[in-house]
Amino acid sequence: MTPVEERDPLAAGQAGEKVIRGGGLRVTAHIVGIVVGVISAPLVVRHLGVDDYGRFILVTSIIYVVTGLTEGGLAQVAIRQYASSPPEGRRRLIGALLGLRVVLSIAGAIVAIAFGLIAGYPEVVVGGIALGGLTLLFNNLWGALQTALVAELRLGSVAGLEIVRAVATTALFVAFVLAGAGLGPFYVVGPLVALLTWIVTSWLVRNITTLVPRFDAARWRELARETVVYAAAMALAAMYFQVALVTTSLLGTDRETGIYGIAFRIVDLANGVPWLLAGSIFPVLAHAAIHNTDRLRYAVGRMTEAAAIAGGWFAVTIILGAEFAIDVVGGEEAADSIPVLRILGIGVMATFLVAGWGFVMLSRQSYRPLMLANLAALVLAIVLSLVLIPEFGAQGAAAVTATLEVTLAAIYGVLLARELPGLRAGFAFAPRLLVALAAAFAAGAPLLFVHPVAAAVVGGLVYFGVLWALRAIPPELIDALRRRRES
């Protein structure tokens, strides 16, 4: 092994353990964030009420869409470039990325505010969108700096930042609830937390990269050449997942928007896990895509199995535990969100596969297929929303979202099979996974009459027990867990 390889955090034989350990830390941090959020979410929902909470989540969705439009896959492309660049090119890359994100954030904020005014949203919602523009700016600056942490697999630091964000968000929410604040002040939480995260991240990376934005037109053009198609793909991805909520706000009532928004928020928290895991392994995928296709095939196969297993467990937990989750978050007033959450839970396993497979195609620079797939999903989202939401309200919106996730996973699977000939990820594994899912629901469903938590716990235990008995759990995960216990 050469000295360069010894220092390379992405080299074969070194990266796998770091990804498993770091990905585990990020998931743990996300779970800590969910647990901390459980403290504030019920307080906020009950304090604001279903209608105002719907307006709050609406602003979040609009900013999410604008983030997709302005971020345009820059983070992932930058990680890939950072991972394959010599040290002297990395500082210039981060500086140019910071400058580009300043410009794009300002443009995105203007577009978001204009949309709010054209849509005729209440003044408090438009004000929330304006504050969301500040959130967009600071989050984009944080994301640019975090490129260095993720690309060098310093995932423990990334996990720590995610916990800081969660704790700060909850603390501010609780403070506003105790102060009896109206809807407006809750929109301030986003920019304050984003500002704090940017400051902490700047301190963490101060010795490894630049903190100063560079308005480097030449490097911007270089990034644009690589990201223009992928940017379109990511913008479409951000839009299709939020279409149902925004359409409900335009075609439905405030209550239907709130009912869907409460269930959507719970699933949205769960959906953060697959993107965290996929983002953690992405530097390895990018490295393998450049240097070793066989290694890439192997990594994709194991990643697919792990994603399907984790996604299946999340689906079992959400569907069986929906009544308890809604009762904790919204109480009796939000009872109509229970069937909505169960419908959304159907698409959760597909989301895990979409996240992982999407990053694989990014590692191979398969931007055009991604764009076409996400465009198809957006068109389907609009058509289904116009048909289902006016007739079925929040449950129709949930059906739209779940259908889109399953459809997009199927499309990504076909594209991936074409991208990597000889890849058979998931085909031999799928029957064992289906048996485990069937056993989990068969064991858990009767216990819904006892308590939904009992149903979810028993369903999860049976699920993993059947997977273990069928030897469907990847050995790398088992070995990593054993080493973790021994260390």
Task: Give the arrangement of secondary structure elements.
Blueprint: H1 3-7, H2 15-71, H3 74-84, H4 87-119, H5 123-151, H6 155-178, H7 183-186, H8 189-204, H9 217-251, H10 254-291, H11 293-330, H12 337-346, H13 348-363, H14 367-419, H15 430-444, H16 452-469, H17 475-486
Question: Key features?
Answer:
17 helices; mainly alpha; 487 residues; disordered N terminus
Notes on the structure:
This protein is mostly helical. It has one domain. The protein contains 17 helices and no strands. Helix 11 packs parallel to helix 15. The longest helix has 57 residues. It starts with a helix and ends with a helix.
Q: In terms of per-residue confidence, which ranges show pLDDT below 50 for 5 or more consecutive residues?
A: 1-8, 10-15
User: Whole-number radius of gyration?
Assistant: 22 Å
How many structural domains can be distinguished in the coordinates?
1
How would you spell out the order of helices and strands?
Answer: HHHHHHHHHHHHHHHHH
**N-C termini distance:** 26 Å
- The averaged pLDDT comes out at 82
Tell me about the biggest sheet?
none
Structural class by sheet pairing and helices: mainly alpha
Strand content: under 5%
Please identify the oligomeric state.
single chain
Number of strands: 0
Task: Count helical runs.
Answer: 17
User: What percentage of residues falls in helices of 4 or more residues?
Assistant: over 70%
Overall geometric form: globular
